């Protein structure tokens, strides 16, 4: 989509996206997570079904982020683990097919900010701070304007009702409570 207005603007010395609606490009959205297994090794996974919109307001504090994640799209590189994650012991995708994030306020300075929002996973909603960075703008070969963002937050999965675990003989638990969520997205200006 080609627009006649500038895709970026200068705000307090920082180049940022112009006000408007920027839709997440599902083909260029990476919502990943990292947890610990056996209290030591890292296990990584990602969701491939991601959609949503970033609405950039004239005043950045009024901007909004809305994201929907299809929980059944989880991939960890291990089909048996993926099925366990989808099961009623963990994500329970039959009852809770989607996770959502809806921002309630944005604190922004320069090219970084915090989007405070309601994260709903497993039917439980909690407010979490999502640390966000704007990485720049590019015009794609089809004339579309793209804004690139990343984000990160850490949650306690048990606070969202995902409590399955196993005690280890030597002490500790099989799966960590703390899960770090990493986000890399391209958005396309829609209006």
What does this structure look like?
The protein is mainly β. The protein has a single domain (20-189), classed as Lipocalin (Beta Barrel). The protein is 4% helix and 58% strand. The protein is built from 1 helix and 12 strands, in the order E-E-E-E-E-E-E-H-E-E-E-E-E. Strand 10 (124-139) and strand 11 form a beta hairpin. It is elongated. The protein starts with 7 loop residues before the first strand and ends with a strand. The model has no long low-confidence stretch (mean pLDDT 91).
Structural topology:
Elements: E1 8-11, E2 14-17, E3 20-37, E4 41-47, E5 50-56, E6 64-70, E7 74-75, H1 79-86, E8 98-109, E9 112-121, E10 124-139, E11 145-156, E12 178-189
Question: Could you spell the SSE succession in H and E letters?
Answer: EEEEEEEHEEEEE
Individual helix count:
1
Q: What value does the average pLDDT take?
A: 91
Cα distance spanning the termini: 9 Å
Topology-level CATH name = Lipocalin
Q: Structurally, how many domains make up the residues? A: 1
Q: Whole-number radius of gyration?
A: 18 Å
Shape: elongated
Family: Belongs to the UPF0312 family.
InterPro entries: Lipid/polyisoprenoid-bd_YceI (IPR007372), TTHA0802/YceI-like_sf (IPR036761)
Domain Lipid/polyisoprenoid-binding YceI-like: 21-188
Organism: Nocardioides koreensis
Jot down its keywords.
191 residues; mainly beta; Lipocalin; 8-stranded antiparallel barrel; two-stranded antiparallel ribbon; 12 strands; TTHA0802/YceI-like_sf; Lipid/polyisoprenoid-bd_YceI
């Amino acid at each position: 989509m080609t627009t006649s207005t500038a895709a970026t603007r200068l705000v307090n010395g920082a180049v940022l996206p112009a006000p408007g609606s920027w839709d997440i490009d599902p083909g260029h959205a990476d919502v990943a997570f990292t947890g610990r297994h056996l209290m030591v090794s890292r296990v990584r996974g990602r969701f491939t079904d991601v959609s949503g919109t970033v609405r950039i307001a004239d005043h950045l504090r009024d901007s909004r982020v809305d994201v929907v994640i299809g929980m059944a799209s989880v991939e960890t590189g291990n089909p048996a683990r993926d099925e366990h994650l989808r099961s009623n012991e963990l994500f329970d995708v039959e009852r809770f097919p989607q996770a959502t994030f809806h921002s309630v306020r944005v604190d922004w300075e320069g090219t970084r900010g915090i989007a405070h929002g309601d994260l709903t996973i497993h039917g439980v909603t909690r407010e979490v701070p999502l640390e966000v960075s704007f990485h720049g703008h590019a015009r794609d070969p089809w004339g579309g304007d793209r804004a690139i963002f990343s984000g990160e937050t850490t949650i306690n999965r048990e606070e969202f009702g995902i409590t399955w675990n196993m005690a280890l003989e030597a002490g500790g638990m099989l799966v960590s409570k703390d899960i770090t969520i990493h986000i890399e997205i391209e958005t396309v200006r829609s209006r």
